[in-house]
Every structure is written in structure tokens, then in C-alpha cells.
Design goal:
Largest interface: A-B, 66 and 60 residues
Shape of chain B: globular
Number of helices of chain B: 8
Largest sheet of chain A: 7 strands, mixed
Distance between the termini of chain B: 6 Å
Oligomer: heterodimer
Number of helices of chain A: 32
Strand content of chain B: 15-25%
Number of strands of chain A: 40
Order of helices and strands of chain B: EHEHEHHEHEEEEHEEEHH
Low-confidence stretches of chain A: 433-440
Helix content of chain B: 25-40%
Number of strands of chain B: 11
Low-confidence stretches of chain B: none
Chain lengths: 953, 257
């Protein structure tokens, strides 16, 4: 028996879901909708009597203060008016969290006869709509067809249990021709190239048998770009020189040469680990989840943050996640729908979905999101970038895994479903107009509460010493997790023991599913029962699925039959190294000729309003950035708590004043001119943000996340090599080791006409620094009338890629460079000055240069400023607009009390600095050019309004 | 004697550790206890003097905020909760905990079998928001706010915090009994508009207590303003001696001294 319970908001309350449809329709240029009514529906399977139905409706599902309910009948809000009704529900196999919770709640009420639940949403829409408009509304507003569909009348809601079917499949490879090998790779979505397929064929020739499907899949997953990073670890021929392993010869090399004693574990585990204090270490990892977010922004971003949280959880013996970060790149959100390429979601919808996805997961996990950034560019239309990062804290004696034969392999947390099949291999391919349809298997929806329970119980089990090793199930699922963790021993797994969301999965699907919220631990036999008890005590599912062995083979069984057996050495070391060609030559970018504007105030306002500069408060407020209580410098600062903080400061231990500073640097605009200086600038930016809030580089580490186009194309790869070389050069001088990194290649989108649009070369640098005393923190808002304003660092003629030129429509090849030796001296002097308490406010000069830095400091502090450009440190005479807007690196605007002038200047000696003006009472930002003429004269309220209005959604 | 606090966790609780820290800073001994331990009886509520239900998203807030945990309290722990209250003990629910208290029948009066009188529903802004709010602290019976300054500054972080009574009578009753403990306020007096009232709560209500003042529920997070460095403007104003929230926890502890 199926019961249907409908809920509707009472007419006197706001119906948020309905409003969302109304405003969304207007965004789509559909104005004929008069009214929308939204209903939440729960279907229940089981024999229940009317009283029970009523009990469930009244005491669980409905909030009787704000909602009406109806059992087995639809609520009628429309009356006689002509309307269109549509009901949307999840596709089969997609996580329906609300239904699962409802079922638990029903059982809590003592009603056990309900065995299944499913939810849907109904909309009654009043207004005259054409069929075409209806279709647009359904597809672009009411659902995402990747995970949802319109419920047809009489459609089956609950399906009978399917029986597991077993059919062992081998793939004939031994006698396959080259063409056949390529066809097999393509048909099975293995994304393996011919040389790799031949290597596999030859391996099986040696074994004198054909591979099984699961063996091939495991090889494809382990050898995928996503898991093996074969492009950057292979051979690259760049400018005639062959580089063996780009990563090893740049990023890893800097770290190993710097050899910092506070680096605990770098590039080995799921996250990079550094020392925090005598009792704890901290770890940091940043990942991307680009392709899934392009398909289903909410689910993609949701599982992106969910996935990266599991990295610190799977580092060492498990860290407690304490801070999230996220950085996004989207297409322009004001783009016309008619200008969108086919198969691409509108950037505004992508952004709203991504932000909601990160919000709902991060907030539910109780992890503060304290740092981030958003960048807009048309070339991200088909390939939005979603970077998610997580910092964890762990006791110093819980940082090492021990792998021994004979331990139990236990999968803990969520169940395995068909979700995310082929995520690892498919993310190595390009997106195309049909991706929405063909990719649905790779999209997943997260369930943060399962992950929260998982963290709570794992930390308990960790502290009790109940397991010896742990890792997360990410891309490649169990295959990747167990394949990597048991590399040195081997393991035997009984696939039928893996708990499933629903029946009908093949043994191969079980092994490579990327279902979320799963971790794998290796338990010593004598601790197994205690471990299982810990999980059970908080309703976390934990299941023994196998044991580690000592034969260095991974052996997969299904109900006793061996369905796959792979040699660990071949699996991990058998991937043939290919040589890729790389080349780079500078773009031919013209130096525009134009006059110095007399009045730059309006230009300043335009730059402040530019999407890449404007306030991101709409996003930031949706994230809980204070949960766990350790927040010291929040993402929004100043007299009205809405100015742009340079970096966040968080105390991960409430009983200590020691803190963690997080910041990032991202400059895709520069990447189009020269990826070398983009990388250098990003590193400088991330580090100067640390310094701006009162930190130092004494114990600062950085992470690299490369998102690039298709690196099979030599020009794309050449740019990447240049960026990696800059990473080495900068890290060496700044003495900031890389501790973790990740790359996402093939970010290209094929349009209908076959054109391939690559994203701009995009390197995210994330920085983390340990701050001994959080009380030394500095914020960027101006503090007091009469204080001195300093420009620290040299301004050069570097308008290339600047927001100034973007706003006035001009170009220049003069991309900002970094003099790392000078920069390091400045950072060191600034760190001493903040440590001595001499700095009242400090803001780095980045997008929009000195002008934007001053404007932001003024309106964040609610104070005015009077500044002259005449004294800004330069090395040659510069135009006033260059001084004002150049985005030269390694610079700060600093506020110092007059009585501290001498002490501050003594500390800054030998570096470029100058007093350029002072803080004023009142509301004017007044900037004079080198001749003493007013160049900017604006009210700070107007500047702030320009900065805030762009993304005030 | 220092009282013992049970900080009650469930799947999705996430402000439990800072709530524990706040109570311990105030001098209590605070334990984190999963609701399953009370349900199975391995931990007894009677061994504690203060019950704190912390913030979070219990069971994902999947049906409505706090509903599933509220039902566990209401249907499975009714008698022990009633006894706990009758024994002159204290209960506080913060954010999700407040949502739990009103849905379990522990606020506005402790009547676990009664029909729900007030609720916390979707913010008028339609989204989750984290921001600091100024609060008026009203005089009344509330144990937790005795001798508190009449203005405090706490953060809110929620999507379902709009306080709504089921009728004008309920609201009048709350006012008459001095059960309205915290109200969203303008920083310097004057009209209270969004975002000062961050969610559209009726009568700007941010927190209420039971008529006896021993059960308190509030949407803002006092446990996130224990230390001066948690204040969003400490770099402007200097470090205060302590955060505005600490006194609330100290009052609870001192009730048992």
C-alpha cells in the first residue's frame, strides 16, 4: 500500500520554493506566470492505518504552525483558475536524504510497518505558458535531468527488489589488433591510450589468460590521469629538453631542497601534514570537482567539499576537519541565455547551485568556511572550476599508518550504489554538448550527516587505537582506496559483503562505484569487535569485506568465485611513461596607447563593481564561518562587518592562542599573458595575504592546484611547465615548501560546431601558516582619524592583465612580475612590524592596485583618506594612472599611528616604503596625482555601494 | 559543587564541543553524550544538573529543523525529561537546540504532550545566514540571564530561525509572563529592520524561556562569544575582558552553587 502525504505552506507565510520559481522564471525572460504554489510530497510504502497516517503527518512531517497537510489527496490552493501542475522526483538510485530521515522518524514514532519512503515536489503554476516555456521552466528551474525527472501519472514509485545477478566477464585482449584495443578502451569508457592498452595486453600474454572486466577497470582507474597524474609525472619534451616528471623536478624538488623540519608528511598521504604545536599537527588538502559541478552544480559541489573533507580524515590515522575553503571560477553571471552554447547551464544557475552545494555540506558538517574567492571569465562557461579545501588537526602520534598482513578490511559509512561510476576515468576526458546525458553515472549527491557521524565515530575509534590504517573512498572508490592502501601487502576482498543501497549491482560496479561518505580502515583482529561496536553505537554502518594478505596481489571474489586478481606491482608501477610535447611562446599582446584620465574616480567605481573585485558577501554569509568557535579574523571585517579581509585566522584549539592563517592566490588574467608570472603572482598574493593579517613566512606552506586545458596539446602543456617552474623558483626563495597539490587537466569544452574552448590557465595557490599568537592579528579596515598611511613595496608599470585595462577596454603585455628576494625582505619586515604591534591596519594591493586597496580600507573602516601619488615608491617616473591601478606584486597599504612612525620606519628600513597620506574623519576618499591635482574624490558610501551592488542577489 | 552538564549529541550535532568548552570555562563539568546512550539507558539524565542541546543539523534537519531529535525526546524520553525539569534543573537549547525544544514541547512551557505552540521556520531571506546581531536582554525570570548587561552581541548562523507563535494569544502570554528573553535590536536603539532582525522573527524574538525561567532556547550562539577574540571587531575596539556570552553559562553554573 502506498500512502501519499502532501505539505503546503499556509497562505499567510512565505513560500520560498514558489518564490524561487517566480524569480527564476523572470531571469529566464518568462513573465506570464501569475502565481506559483509549491508542495512537498512524501510517499510511504507499507500497510498503515488511517490513524497512523495522521500521526505521521501531524507529529513528524508537518509543522502545524506554518504548514497544512493532506493525506492521499492533493491540496488545492489554485481553485478554479486554469493552471499547470508538475511533480518532480529523484531518478532511481539517486540519494533521497529526506526520505531516509522520514523513514527513521516514522520508526521512532513506533510505526514499523512502513518499509520505504520517497519524496517529490509538486508545483501548481498559474498563468498562460506555451509548451516551449513549460519545457524551459521544467528543465532550467524545477529540476536537473541528471538526477531528477517529471513524475508521470501512474509511474511506479517503489520498485520490487531486484536480484543480484552474477555473470563473470572476461575481455578478449590477447589477440586484439591495435584498432581493436582502442575500440575496447573507448567502448568500455576506460580512457586508456593505445600504448597503455598494449602494455596491458602484453602483461596478460605473460600470464597466458584474458583479463576480466574488473581487472581492466581497476587498471584504467589506477592509471587514469585523475589518480596517477601521468601527464605531469611522465616525460615532457619542452623547448627541446626532456623533463622526467615535471612535478618531481619543480614542486617536489623545492620541498625536498628546503627540507623544513616542521614538514611532517608531504606528498605522501591524502593531505600534507605540518607541525602545529607540541601536541598536534595540522594537515591541508585542496581538490577540484569541476566536471561533476558542470553537470549538476549542487551535487557536484556538494560531493566536492564532502570528498575533500575525507582527505584529512584519511590522512595519517585521521584528522578532525576544522576549516573549509573554496574557490570557484564561473562564466559571466549576467550572460544572456540566448548566447549560451548548447549543453551548458547558465553561469548564474551554476553559481547558485555550487554555492548551495558547498553551503549545505560544509554547514551540516559543522566546519567553518573561512576563506575563498570567485573569478569570472567567459572561458569557464563550459568548464566551471570548483576548488574545495579542508584543514584538519590531529595528535602528533596519530600521523602514521601501519600496513600489515592479516588485518581486517572494513568499509565504514555510506552504502555503495551505482552513483559515480567512472568518475575517475571520465574526468580525464573533455566535456561536450551531450555530456549532460552520457555522464549521469558520474554525478553524485552527498549526505553530510552520514559523513558527520563517520567523523565523530572514526575519531573515537582512532583515539582508542582500534585501527592501524585509514583512507577515504574518493575517485575510483574501493578500487582506488584498497588498491593504494594495501599496495605493500596485498588484500583479498569479498565483494558481495559490501553493503549496497539497492540490489542489482554487478561485482565490477561495487568495486569502482564512487558512492560518497565511505572510508576504509584496516583493523587488527584483536580490536575488530571493539571498533565495530564504536560505529554501531552511533548508527554508523561498518562491514568487514576482506583481509590484508602477504602476497602483494589484490584478489577480488564474489560469493567465493575469484573475479579478478592483479599484481600490485603491475597495477602501481606498470603504467608506461609516455613522452608529451610541450611548447610555449608569448602571446602577441599589444601595448595600447591612451591618455591618462584626469578624473579616475568613476573608473575606480567601475573596477570596484567588476565581478572579480566586488563584494562576495552574498556567498560568504551563507557559509557558517564561525562554527567550532575558533574564528579570530573572519572573512568579513570592519566597522559594519562587511569589508574584505585578506586572510582568515582560526584557532583550531579553543584552549590555545595559537592559530592557523589561510589565504589564496589566483590570477587567471595573468596566465593568458605568461603562466610563469601568473604562478609567481599567485604565490606572492597568497603569501602577502598571510603577512597582511599579521602572519609571517616562518612556518608557511603552500599548495598547488593546476586546472588546465587539454595538455595533450603542446601549447597548453608548455604553459603548465612554465607555471611549475615558477613554483619552484618562488618556493625556493620564499622558503615556503609545497606540501600537497593536485591537478585537473582536460578542462575543455567542445561546442556543437566542434570548436574546443579551453579554460584560461588557472593555478590556485593556497597558503597555510601557523601563527604563534592570534592576539597579534591585524585587519584591513582603517581604524583612526589622523593615522599615517604608508605604501610599502615598489609600484612598476605592470598593467598587463589588470582590472583597470579590462574596465577601459585596453591591453598591455606588461604582466606583474615578482622580485622574490625583495618581496621576501618586505614580508619579513612587515611581519616584524605587526608582531611589534606597530600596524593598525594593513591591506595588500592586488586587483585594482593601490586605488582599490585604499577604497576598500576606507569604506570597511567607515573613515576617509587623503593620499598623494607623488611619494609612492617607484623605480622610474610612472603615469599617475599606472601608479594608481598597476597590480604590481609584494605591496601593502599600511596604517600606522603617528607615535609609531619612527619605530615602523626603522623596521622597514632597506625596503621600499613611503608615507603617502593619512586617515581622515569624514567620508571622502581623496587621491591627488603627482602634480597635486585631485584624481579621485569620492564618497566612501558611493564606493561601497558600487562594490556591493553587483552580487547583491 | 560544580554542576555536571550533559551536552546532548545526535547525528548532525556540530556545536557540541564549543558548548562544552563554554560550560567548562564557566566552571562546570561538561560531558558530550550521544542521545543513543540515553535511549539505551547506559547514561542517566538524572546524573546531571544541566541539559544543553547544542547547535547543528540533527538528522540533517531533513524534515524540518530539529524535528527528529525533538520526537525522540518527546516520545522516547518523555518521563525522564519531565522528572529532570521537576527536579529544579536547567535546560538550554541553542540554535538547533532551540528548534528541538519548541518541537519537543519543552518551550514555551514544559508540556511534552501538548500541541506545539510556537515554531522556528525559514528565514524571510530564504537562505542560511551567518551574521552578528545586537540583542536586547529583557528582565524576567530567566535563570541564565540574571545580571547580564541589557545589550549583548552574538552571532546567528541558521536558515530556519524565524520565530512564529501560533496565535496572538500565545504571543501575549509570552510577553505577559516575561518569557521573551532576547530580542533582536538596532545597535543604538531605533527601528529594527533586516538584517538587524536576521530572519523576520515575530516581535524580533530571538530567545524565550519557560515561565519559571529554567528552560531557555535561543537562536543566537552565546557559546561563540566566550572569548574576546571571537568578537568580529576586536581589532578595532581592542580585546575585552571576556566575551558577552560567558555570563550566561556562569549563571547556569552558579544556580547550583
Amino acid at each position: 500500500m502506498i500512502t501519499r502525504i502532501e505539505l503546503a505552506i499556509k497562505p499567510e507565510f512565505n513560500d520560498m520554493a514558489a518564490q524561487h520559481v517566480l524569480s527564476g522564471a523572470k531571469d529566464l525572460d518568462i513573465h506570464s506566470i501569475e502565481k506559483v504554489y509549491a508542495f512537498n510530497i512524501t510517499y510511504l510504502l507499507g500497510d498503515i492505518i488511517d490513524d497512523e497516517k495522521k500521526h505521521i503527518a501531524e507529529h513528524l512531517l508537518a509543522d502545524k504552525v506554518t504548514q497544512d497537510y493532506s493525506i492521499d489527496e492533493s491540496i488545492d490552493r489554485v481553485g478554479a483558475k486554469d493552471h499547470w501542475s508538475v511533480e518532480v522526483t529523484f531518478n532511481r538510485g539517486v540519494t533521497d536524504m529526506v526520505a531516509a530521515t522520514a523513514l527513521k522518524g516514522i520508526h521512532d514514532l513506533g510505526i514499523d510497518s512502513v518499509t520505504e519512503a520517497k519524496t517529490s515536489r509538486r508545483y501548481d503554476i498559474v498563468g498562460h505558458l506555451s509548451d516551449a516555456e513549460k519545457q524551459i521552466i521544467v528543465e532550467k528551474l524545477l529540476m536537473n535531468k541528471v538526477i531528477e525527472h517529471v513524475l508521470e501519472p501512474n509511474e511506479t514509485i517503489f520498485f520490487p527488489i531486484m536480484h543480484d545477478q552474477f555473470e563473470q566477464i572476461t575481455v578478449p585482449l590477447l589477440n586484439a589488433s591495435d584498432a581493436e584495443l582502442q575500440k575496447i578502451s573507448k567502448d568500455r569508457d576506460l580512457f586508456l591510450n593505445l600504448e597503455e592498452m598494449k602494455t596491458i595486453r602484453d602483461h596478460y600474454k605473460g600470464l597466458d589468460r584474458e583479463p576480466t572486466d574488473i581487472e581492466l577497470e581497476m587498471l584504467a582507474q589506477t592509471w587514469s590521469e585523475h589518480c596517477s597524474h601521468k601527464t605531469l609525472t611522465g616525460f615532457v619534451e619542452f623547448n627541446g629538453e626532456v623533463i622526467d616528471n615535471v612535478l618531481k623536478s619543480t614542486i617536489f624538488k623545492a620541498t625536498s631542497e628546503l627540507n623544513k623540519d616542521w614538514c611532517v608528511s608531504v606528498f605522501e598521504d591524502n593531505a600534507g601534514v605540518i607541525k602545529f604545536d607540541d601536541e598536534y599537527n595540522i594537515c591541508f588538502k585542496v581538490e577540484t570537482h569541476n566536471h561533476p559541478s558542470a553537470m549538476e552544480p549542487y551535487g557536484g559541489a556538494n560531493t566536492g567539499i564532502g570528498g575533500v573533507i575525507r582527505d584529512p580524515m584519511g590522512t595519517g590515522l585521521g584528522a578532525k576537519p576544522v576549516i573549509n575553503t573554496d574557490i570557484f571560477c564561473f562564466g559571466p553571471v549576467d550572460m544572456k541565455h540566448s548566447d549560451l552554447p548548447k549543453g551548458v547551464l547558465h553561469p548564474k544557475r551554476v553559481m547558485q547551485g555550487v554555492v548551495s552545494g558547498v553551503r549545505d555540506y560544509g554547514n551540516r558538517m559543522g566546519i567553518p568556511t573561512t576563506n575563498g574567492s570567485i573569478f569570472f571569465d567567459e572561458r569557464y562557461l563550459g568548464n566551471p572550476l570548483v576548488y574545495c579545501g579542508n584543514v584538519g588537526i590531529m595528535p602528533v602520534d596519530k600521523c602514521v599508518k601501519t600496513i600489515v598482513p592479516g588485518d581486517y578490511v572494513v568499509v565504514v559509512g555510506g552504502r555503495t550504489g551505482r552513483d559515480g561510476i567512472h568518475g575517475a576515468t571520465a574526468s580525464s576526458g573533455e566535456l561536450h554538448t551531450e555530456s549532460e546525458g552520457t555522464w549521469s553515472g558520474a554525478v553524485q549527491i552527498g549526505n553530510p550527516i552520514i559523513e558527520k557521524k563517520l567523523v565523530d565515530t572514526l575519531l573515537d575509534a582512532r583515539d582508542k587505537g582500534l585501527y592501524r590504517a585509514i583512507t577515504d573512498c574518493g575517485a575510483g572508490g574501493l578500487s582506488s582506496a584498497i588498491g593504494e592502501l594495501a599496495e605493500t601487502t596485498g588484500a583479498e576482498i569479498d565483494l558481495e559483503k559490501v553493503p549496497l543501497k539497492y540490489h542489482g549491482l554487478t561485482y565490477m560496479e561495487i568495486w569502482i562505484s564512487e558512492a560518497q561518505e565511505r572510508m576504509v580502515i584496516f583493523c587488527p583482529p584483536e580490536k575488530l569487535q571493539e571498533a565495530l561496536d564504536v560505529f554501531e553505537s552511533e548508527d554508523v554502518e561498518a562491514t568487514v569485506i576482506g583481509r590484508t594478505t602477504n602476497d602483494k596481489k589484490i584478489r577480488l571474489k564474489y560469493n567465493g568465485t575469484v573475479v579478478g586478481e592483479l599484481d600490485m606491482h603491475f597495477l602501481h608501477k606498470g603504467l608506461p611513461k609516455t613522452v608529451r610535447k610541450a611548447e610555449w611562446k608569448p602571446e602577441d599582446i599589444k601595448e595600447s596607447q591612451f591618455d591618462v584620465p584626469q578624473d579616475a574616480g568613476d573608473i575606480l567605481q567601475k573596477i570596484l563593481a567588476a565581478p572579480n573585485v566586488c563584494s562576495k558577501e552574498w556567498v560568504i554569509r551563507q557559509y557558517d564561518h564561525e562554527v567550532q568557535g575558533g574564528s579570530v579574523i573572519k572573512p568579513l571585517v570592519g566597522v559594519e562587518n562587511d569589508g574584505p579581509g585578506d586572510a582568515s585566522i582560526t584557532r583550531p584549539r579553543l584552549d590555545s592562542n595559537k592559530a592557523v592563517i589561510l589565504s589564496n592566490g589566483l590570477n587567471p588574467n595573468y596566465g593568458l599573458i605568461d603562466p610563469y608570472w601568473m604562478a609567481a603572482s599567485s604565490i606572492d598574493e597568497a603569501l602577502r595575504n598571510i603577512v597582511a593579517v599579521g602572519g609571517s613566512l616562518e612556518q608557511a606552506a603552500i599548495l598547488d592546484n593546476f586546472c588546465w586545458g587539454n595538455t595533450d596539446k603542446p601549447d597548453r602543456l608548455g604553459g603548465l611547465v612554465r607555471a611549475a617552474q615558477a613554483c619552484y623558483d618562488m618556493a625556493k626563495v620564499f622558503e615556503t615548501p609545497f606540501i600537497s597539490g593536485k591537478d585537473s587537466l582536460n578542462n575543455e569544452f567542445q561546442t556543437e560546431t566542434g570548436e574546443s574552448i579551453a579554460i584560461p590557465p588557472t593555478l590556485l595557490i593556497s597558503a597555510i601558516a601557523v601563527m604563534p599568537d592570534a592576539a597579534k592579528a591585524v585587519s584591513m579596515d582603517l581604524k583612526e582619524n589622523g593615522n599615517l598611511l604608508y605604501a610599502v613595496g615598489t609600484t612598476y608599470n605592470e598593467l598587463g592583465g589588470s582590472h583597470y585595462l579590462q574596465v577601459i577596454g585596453e591591453t598591455s603585455p606588461n604582466v606583474p612580475q615578482v622580485d622574490a628576494v625583495k618581496a621576501k625582505a618586505i614580508f619579513k619586515a612587515m611581519a616584524s612590524a605587526t608582531d611589534a604591534g606597530l600596524v593598525r591596519a594593513c591591506h595588500d594591493c592586488s586587483e585594482g592596485g593601490i586605488a582599490v586597496a585604499l577604497a576598500e580600507m576606507a569604506f570597511a573602516g567607515g573613515l576617509g583618506a587623503e593620499v598623494s601619488l607623488a611619494d609612492v615608491p617607484v623605480t622610474e617616473a610612472l603615469r599617475d594612472d599606472v601608479i594608481l591601478f598597476s597590480e604590481s606584486n609584494s605591496r601593502f597599504i599600511v596604517e600606522v599611528k603617528p607615535e609609531n612612525q619612527q619605530a615602523f620606519e626603522k623596521m622597514m628600513a632597506d625596503n621600499a616604503f613611503a608615507v603617502i597620506g593619512k586617515v581622515t574623519e569624514g567620508t571622502a576618499l581623496l587621491i591627488k596625482n603627482s602634480d597635486g591635482q585631485e584624481m579621485v574624490h569620492k564618497n566612501i558610501a558611493d564606493l561601497k555601494e558600487s562594490w556591493q551592488q553587483t552580487l547583491r542577489w | 559543587m560544580n554542576p555536571r552538564v550533559i551536552v546532548l549529541r545526535a547525528a548532525g550535532s556540530n556545536c557540541d564541543q564549543e558548548t562544552q568548552f563554554a560550560f567548562e570555562t564557566a566552571g562546570a563539568k561538561a560531558d558530550l553524550v550521544h542521545v543513543n546512550r540515553l535511549l539505551e539507558g547506559s547514561v542517566k539524565l538524572e546524573d546531571y544538573q544541566i541539559l544543553a542541546i547544542p547547535g547543528g543539523f540533527t538528522y540533517g534537519d531533513d524534515i524540518s529543523a530539529g524535528k527528529v531529535l525533538a520526537n525522540q525526546l518527546k516520545y522516547k524520553l518523555q518521563q525522564v525529561l519531565q522528572q529532570f525539569y521537576n527536579d529544579d534543573k536547567l535546560i538550554i537549547g541553542i540554535c538547533n537546540g532551540f528548534q528541538v525544544l519548541v518541537k519537543a514541547g519543552l518551550l514555551p512551557v514544559v508540556e511534552l504532550t501538548a500541541q506545539q505552540k510556537v515554531t522556528l521556520t525559514d528565514n524571510d531571506s530564504g537562505k542560511f545566514e551567518d551574521r552578528w546581531v545586537h540583542l536586547d536582554v529583557n528582565d524576567g525570570p530567566c535563570v541564565f540571564t540574571q545580571n547580564m548587561p541589557n545589550k549583548v552581541y552574538f552571532p546567528v548562523a541558521h536558515a530556519e530561525g524565524k520565530f512564529v507563535p501560533d496565535s496572538d494569544e500565545t504571543l501575549n502570554e509570552l510577553v505577559k509572563n516575561k518569557q521573551v528573553v532576547f530580542q533582536y535590536a538596532a545597535p543604538n536603539g531605533g527601528e529594527v529592520k533586516y538584517p538587524m532582525n536576521p530572519n523576520g522573527s515575530v516581535a524580533n524574538i530571538a530567545g524565550i524561556c519557560d515561565p519559571a525561567g529554567r528552560v531557555l532556547g535561543l537562536m543566537p550562539h552565546p557559546e561563540r562569544h566566550i572569548e574576546p577574540s571571537q568578537h568580529p571587531q576586536w581589532t578595532r575596539l581592542g580585546m575585552a575582558e571576556q566575551g558577552d556570552g560567558l555570563i550566561l553559562f556562569e549563571n547556569a553554573v552558579n544556580y547550583f552553587k
